[in-house]
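Work through this:
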Amino acid sequence: MSEPNDREAQRVAFLSDAGLGDARRLTLAGDASTRRYERLTTRNGESLILMDQPPADESGVAAPGVDAEGRRALGYNAEARLAGGSVAAFVAIAGWLRARGLSTPVVGPRDTAAGLAVLEDMGDAVFATQTQDLVGLYGVAVDALAELHASAPPEVIEADGERWPLFAYDAQAYRAGLDPFLDWWPRFAGLPSPAAEAAAEWRALWAPVITRAEAGASVFVHRDYHAENLLWLPQREELARVGMLDFQDAVRGHPAWDLLHLLQDARRDVPVELEAAMLDRYLAARPQVDPGAFLADYNALAALNAARILGRVFARQEVLFRRGRYTAFMPRTWRHLERNLEGEGMDGLRVWFDRHVPKSARAAENRS
């Protein structure tokens, strides 16, 4: 891996070649990824974003046709169907979404091999900071999903000179995100690792949920459709008022997946009344969808996602890096999980959690 000063030299050279060598640079707050962002201010006052994704910081991405064992050998990105921060994926998907009347950053100068690109600055008005007219705000975000789900996505997304396969969110990808809970949450909370029998029971109990998720994989899924990746752009029209970020890991998946990220957000409270109203709004826009089956899938996948986030994302980040901010999200995510486990058909998983992760081991302050 390159040393930080080597990467800085790459950034400086890239910006110079792009005619932005004299731009003022301000590092922006990061997230759980290996990407880095800077706000650039040009001499004439224009604001742009530098996206920096060092390729060496990510594991390999599986090409189409690579089998399960090959994906395991390549690492987590290949198993989970992640894009490994690919700038090519970002460019292709951004252009494809814009062609459908949605807002994504326009991409300027880029070096896909080096993992560098200059993007349109769409501002800082993320949903997480918005408090007025939540029905209107979330309504447009739900309408954007309904529009995306109205037609089947292509197997390969092409735009602006780049192409990227839209893989199915399959069982191996779900397992890659879900099963790390068995390792990281016990390490975070000071619990013993689950015995082999408990781990086998965990996998068997989640199997029907994953089967339902695979069977419903029919639409474009942004994958991280939540309050910190959506921008409110009221000066634009219709669906373009929702600005989308962090979509490069998009897959073909179940239509409930993006909805549950939006409406059971780990990062901000969404009132249950608003969640119910938005689910009704989505179903009204797609009358061909069976409401009972959809809501059952939504509940089960929301439980799976909460467990995935608690283990693979939050607990892992805290154990490895002690980043602190994720402990604040844990109580909300546990509330989501516990509510979803009260749903029909979730009895076995609720009992599993009660037996192996008692309530006293679910709070962030009880970590070891």
